[in-house]
Amino acid sequence: MNLVSARFRLAGLLRKLEACATLKLPFSFFLALRYLKPKRTFVSIITIISMIGVMLGVTVLILVISVMTGFDRELRQK
């Protein structure tokens, strides 16, 4: 990457950040939108699959912890 292309990338990033600031979005949403916009369709598919995987993993963890807590309470009551 040469200096000119790095300068153009930085200018584009600054323009996106300014647009984000005018919409009053938090910086985390700005980063999320930056990585969710597909440059190619394959990257978008991988992003969607990984997001679904993380969502399912967190859901299963919450479910297991709540079930185990319920069993623990039941065993302690008896």
**Structural domains: how many:** 2
Distance between the termini: 68 Å
| Percent of residues in β-strands | under 5%
Sketch the major β-sheet: none
Q: Please give the share of residues in helix.
A: over 70%
Helical region count?
3
Write up what this structure looks like:
The chain is mostly helical and 78 residues long. The protein folds into 2 domains: 1-37; 41-78. The longest helix has 37 residues, at 41-77. The protein has 3 helices and no strands.
Notable traits:
78 residues; mainly alpha; 2 domains; elongated
Q: Topology of this structure?
A:
Blueprint: H1 3-23, H2 27-36, H3 41-77
Summarize the structure.
The chain has 78 residues and is mostly helical. It is built from three helices and no strands. The longest helix is centred in the last third of the chain and has 37 residues, at 41-77.
